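Protein data:
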Amino acid sequence: MGAIERWTVDFYDMVGAVPLVGAEEFPWLGDLHERAARNGARHGTPILISPTGRADPRINLFFRTGMMAGASVKTMRRYAYSLAVWLTFLHIFGRRWDEATLADVEAYKDWRLTDVRNDERVKGTSFDTDRAALNCFYAWAGPRYRTINPVAAVPRQVPSSAMPSAVFGGSGIPLASNGRDPLRPAASRRRQVKWLLRSGFEQWRNIGLRGYGFDGLRRPGWRGYNEDRDVAFVDGLYGTGLRLQEWASILDVELPFSERGRYPKAWLAAACIKGAPDEGRYYRIPRRALSTVASYMDVVEGSRTEVIRRAQRVGRYDRLPGVRIVTGYSARTRELHIQTASGASVPLSLDVLGPDERLRLFRMTPNGLEPLAVWLSHNGLPKKAGGWEDTFRDANERIADLWADLSAEELTPEERERRRSQCPVWARAHMLRHSFALRWYLVLSMVWQPHLDGFTDEQLKDLRDQFGDVWYALSILLGHSHPDTTRDHYLAPFTGLHVDYLMALLDEDEQRAMESLVRTAVAATGVVLAAEGAR
């Protein structure tokens, strides 16, 4: 399918400079950014364009009003691409979106998941997001444009006494007798919660990002461009438990290099957190991970300084649109001082600066402009969060190739591809967050282990009042708004694992942290541990 046959997606860019094209021909338009803001657009708001080059204002209004107007940029992007694929499917068959039926949606599901003529088929979990996007769109469009929602939807709460053998969604579409949405793929319910032991993580990192082989030796001819950057980034993900977007958006002024202790405390800005809450939160960085970041940022040997100097020499930063000059930073108030057009400086809280805005923050140095963003691409420009998915993919591909090379037999292309797919060493960014959750599940659970003899029910209650229970503490570490999220979506698969196996997940720093927690808990009650618990 050619690009001309597709619906395409673009996004409002309120960070860059206002485009000059058309400014002289259409002066009555005024400031384009201000005009877009008056129409309800904000940075990242999608614009869908039909194959004819025209936009349907009814569709694009969806992202500027109602629930989507307050959605995160990531959610809007995902829903916009889902809508674009759906609209493209309808376009091929000469159907308009406002006349689509359940039969169209069922045919779309088959095409997305199983049709052998579609080379862009997706997994059930991806289609589940598509289904949610379409249902959200049609639920919004129905009362506004008098259209029927063709997407089957399950009511959130249906009293069991009132539920017949076949119930109907809001659009009159029959649902399965068990209440399951017939359009929802069977595989979409289960979350893929996977984790890595410390040894497994280090093997993946060393082979995929540092040029080692399965024999533990550096491969001949390895040229690790930005190796220290990639290692620092994944070490930080594994050690902090932050989401990819959150860790990718960190500025250099936010890193606690001057803090002491094994787990220095740092602040995560509200605008960078999933869901964009009103307030940011603290998180901890293991000293080991912080040291790798410091090495990457070293002014003498780190690759970050090297790419900055290279970009400065060719004037790359001077040509960037929408650059904002930072003249100072207050650690006490967590405010940057931004230079205005008049040359004065105004304070701006880090909590309101989202990921895209942070890409345009620079300071003036004797060598020229320098970015505040920690993570930079090989050309010296701040690296966008989506680019890290490519880093993980490339590392996995590199490891799979080496795994295939270990075969003692000569493989056909089909056999080689099959062996590559069987490689046991691989990782995704969110797996590192899962691993963080599991490690600290163990650390916190050990405080409440029954083998801490002498604790009465009343003393355990006092401990929970002082320190919170395991799930509450973990929800804080992971940045979840409610402990149920942590329990239901992250750690339920971990609860059946044997403690001896879980202990293998901890490195020396984490074991010392666990012992410190146990001692603190014991001191709070005055109970003397038995010999087993004291070890």
About this structure: The longest helix spans residues 124-145. Strands lie at 8-11, 46-49, 265-268, 281-284, 324-330, 335-339, 345-349, 361-365, 368-371. Confidence is low (pLDDT under 50) at residues 154-180, 527-535. The radius of gyration is 27 Å.
